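Researcher: Go.
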Amino acid sequence: MADSTITRLEAAASSGSGVRFVGNSVMPDGVPVYVGWDQIHDEARAVAAALQAKGLVPGDHVAVLGPTSRELMTIVRGCWMAGIASMVLPLPMRMGSLDVFIETTRARIRHGDAKLILIDHQLADFYVAAPDDPPIESMTSVMPGSPNVPHGDALELPPHDPERLVILQYTSGSTSEPKGVMIPDRVLSANLDATCDAAVLGPGETMVSWLPLYHDMGLVGFLALPMTKGVDLVQAAPQDFLAHPGNWMDWISDYRGTATAGPNFSWVLATRALKRKTDLDLSSLTLALSGAEPVDPKAVEAFVAEAERFGFTAGGVFPAFGMAEVAIAGTFPERGRGLVTDTVDRRVLETQRVAKPIEIDDPDDLALRARRLPLLGRAVPGLEMKVVDPDTHDELPERHVGELLLRGTSVTPGYYKRPDATAALFDDDWLCTGDLAYLLDGELVMCGRIKDVIIVGGRNVFPEDIERAVGPLDGVRAGNVIALGVEGYKGKESVVVVAEVRLTDTSGDLDGVRAHVHERTLDVCGLPPRDVMLVQPGTLPKTSSGKLQRAKCREEYLNEELRLVD
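Model: Structure:
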């Protein structure tokens, strides 16, 4: 039997490694502070004892609402030490959507049967308790030094239970039907071991992260992993990266970071920031993971071109696939290999769902006739994968596109109190990801989400292709474009493009931008879009982790709720 999470935390506490808190949001005075995992561990034991003193028992759930901080990380660790599942809740994306944030937060708290809500003082005024909410207390109320917080020696460690939940991770979704991914002790332990094996991660690394701790990549990949494996961590907050994307590269340079990660859009922002940098050393970075959203080869290559000036080598690029339903890691490439792509005929892919190789030298012709898709590696140890026909569930040969299925030690047992969603998630013991993919020499190649595919003129158009083609246009905000399908004439699906715009001196007026979006969409999908909607910055709906919500955008489009640019 694998060691429990508690055993791993105790072992890592004596590793001699720790976490360095950086950034103005995490450290209000802006001065970085290094804290050993042993000190964090002692403080977390006191948190665990305080939770037990409040009457919480192993198997209970605690909701935590707060920005990235030493307190939040310590409380998560304290929950796990007490055998309590942590529910780290998303923060509001925009201040204008506070009503939706409160409604969504309350739905998750109630659905997740939280016995206690711990909230940061900065958010206390935003979330007011309702009559049937569980008790709400300040995060500081369970931290060492606060009144009535016992010493860590008072903690009674619970017996090991591999089926007891460690994490209840809520996916982005509607407020009426939240889905909490159950991550029991055995699943978390298995995936962390698999991650370290596949990525050759271990002591001596310095991981650098600004990722939100309410997202699986941040919570599992860049907190649970270093915290249980005894790996050094440099921890910042998302807002410190978003305000100044160049900070990310500075942290890697200053602290000799060896491993980091971010979604595709973050590498685009980092590339822009690098253009303005003159004094960096990125030679230590040997694992630059791109995941959580589709990996754009052009974005990866643009980053490499800029980062190589500062000692980064292309082999450090690490395109991967993961999801909350397997804790975090699904497929990893070989570390040090860098980006490898498969260039396939776009029309054959869209009409026959077969990835037929094609060779095209002209870059302009390549964009229209082909798709370059990154290879995302093999299933991490303990997992296996296959691609099946979405309708018959018959297994497909290599280069045939179908739904990706996974099974193994890292797979969630299902969604909390959602037997309907859990039943839909599995085909026997295989987890149905909802992703369209194919296999190539045993490696995963992703094509898109099944529910997002737009069927136009007998072709399966992938919205990412349109979004990437439109994003670079002058006047369009890159990363803020959504392509979606709506029912058109005689029930046939047609394309709608919704793009956030910010006019520049060279973009021309709105009519000019709209014409360019129309033309680029026609180039990609072969048919003109039914509508091109130009909307104000900050309009497009996104998940708490920053992913575009196509289904929500489609709903807002049909209900005429989009905020158009005047």
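Model: The mean pLDDT is 90.
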